[in-house]
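Input/output pair, single chain:
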Amino acid sequence: MAQYPYTLSIVGHDHTYSRAGRELLVGNGGAPLGSAVNFGYALVKRRSDGAVAVDMYDYQSNAADTGFHFAVNADGSDAAP
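Output:
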């Protein structure tokens, strides 16, 4: 990955979700959680301006986690939400 530019690295396994810079951890798709965060899923969408937007949703209500919305430009820098 160090050789090639990337926008966002999406990884999993931990039973929660978080973001650290250009890495998105999504591991809450069905196993018991390791924190108070509810089960859910992520939607990653490419916007018309080329940025990638990420939202997390509760699996029961399909409600977005309003505290976990972010967007990144193609070069990995933060974009306006």
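The chain has one domain: 9-72. Residues 9-72 form one domain.
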